[in-house]
Amino acid sequence: MGLINATTTSDFRAVLEKGDILFFPEGGFEIPASVRGALMGASQDARSIHKNIAYKPNVDRVTGLVDSAETEAVRNGMREYSRLALRFMADILPAYAANWKIDYASFRSIEERGRDLPLTKRNDLLHVDAFPSRPVFGDLILRCFTNVNPEQPREWLVSDPFALLGPKEAANAGLARFAETAESGLHKLRRTAVRTLRRAGLPLVDRSPYDAFMLHFHDWLKHREEWQRDCPKYRFDLPPGSTWLVFTDMVPHAVLGGRLALEQTVIVSRASLANPQLAPSSILERLAGKPLSA
Ligand code: SIN
Ligand code: FE
Predict the structure, then answer these.
(1) Could you give the residue ranges of the DSSP H alpha helices within the chain?
(2) What is the SS3 assignment for 93?
(3) What pLDDT sits at residue 182?
(4) pLDDT value at residue 42
(5) Does ligand 1 lie within 6 Å of residue 222's CB atom?
(6) What are the mean pLDDT values of the chain's consecutive 10-residue runs (294 residues total)?
(7) Pick from 87, 105, 207, 270: CA 20 to 30 A from residue 186's CA?
(8) DSSP string, 135-165
(9) pLDDT at residue number 262
């Protein structure tokens, strides 16, 4: 488990799929001073329901700001970071970019140390990512972070990746229950109904059993005190100006301290991995003995 300096390898897919963090100490790409300027002043409410300031590239909108007078400047800054980060990611990972789905970007402006959040939203507890509103159906969550804090590192903690975590903990977390549901008539009926209502415009989410398990696993890991205490842990200080990429659904992670990070997410198709067997969905399907991602 490690932080792999990008200058030491050219096989970036292998690094990411192994569950390591692909690290660009110098940042990998240039973020113009105008972007930093636009974002540094953005005010975010620590108690807001929005954990971060989010930017949705597909609709060019920001959420999570306190002061709507800042919207225009922040949107411009986020749009530019999103564009640059996506270009950089596509450049270094063309095989993924060929059919990934562009997800949101975010700006993390609040100091993470001592942040007061409800347990399942806490960033300082180790977890794998899963998005309640954006199911992935077996595909993977790849995130590119940049620490734009000129002084402070961003302090990360990670644990062993899914290839080790899954076989150890998925059964304890109730994987069998989710796998059984996958085949029940009621589950199929419910999903057909959800899809019909979605087409009619209702804001419902159609999730695969894999997505349902991962949402549950995210919370389950945060609740499990002994695992939080005893699991293998690796500490990394990500320095000012650095960029790092990681599959955050494959690698349990937590942030202990730091403020002012930018991030862009893409959803990578499982089929575009050099080794699709390493996807969390493949690992869970092997453990469950059946498909979970449809
Ligand atoms: C997270 O994805 O859990 C937070 C990581 C970060 O903001 O550094
Ligand atoms: Fe996370």
Answers:
(1) 12-17, 33-40, 71-92, 94-97, 162-169, 175-183, 185-199, 209-223, 225-230, 280-288
(2) coil
(3) 81
(4) 75
(5) no
(6) 93 98 97 89 66 92 83 91 98 98 95 92 97 96 96 97 98 96 85 91 90 98 98 97 98 96 98 98 97 94
(7) 270
(8) --TT-EEEEEEEE--SSPPEEEEE---HHHH
(9) 96
- Alpha-carbon dihedral of residues 228, 220, 53, 143, nearest 10 degrees? 80
CA-to-CA separations, 70 to 45, 50, 55, 212, 262, in angstroms, rounded: 13, 16, 14, 36, 17
Ligand 1 mutation target, pool 112, 247, 262, most atoms within 8 A of CB = 112
> Which amino acid is it at 277?
Q
Atom of ligand 1 nearest to the CA of 253: 3
Distance 153 CA to ligand 2 centre (A): 17
CA of 200 to the centre of ligand 2 (A): 32
Nearest-atom index, ligand 1, CA of 108: 7
| CB-based contact 34:52 (threshold 8 Å) | no
- Decide: 247 and 12 in contact? Cβ < 8 Å: no
Q: What is the pTM of this model?
A: 0.95
- pLDDT for 240 equals 97
Whole-number Å distance between alpha carbons of 133 and 207: 9
* Level-2 CATH architecture, domain 3-167+233-286: Sandwich (2.60)
CA distance 22 to 7: 10
Q: What is the pLDDT of residue 47?
A: 56
Ligand number with the minimum distance to the CA of 106: 1
Rounded CA separation 173/84 (Å): 39
pLDDT at 46: 60
Report CA 93 to chain centroid distance, whole Å: 17
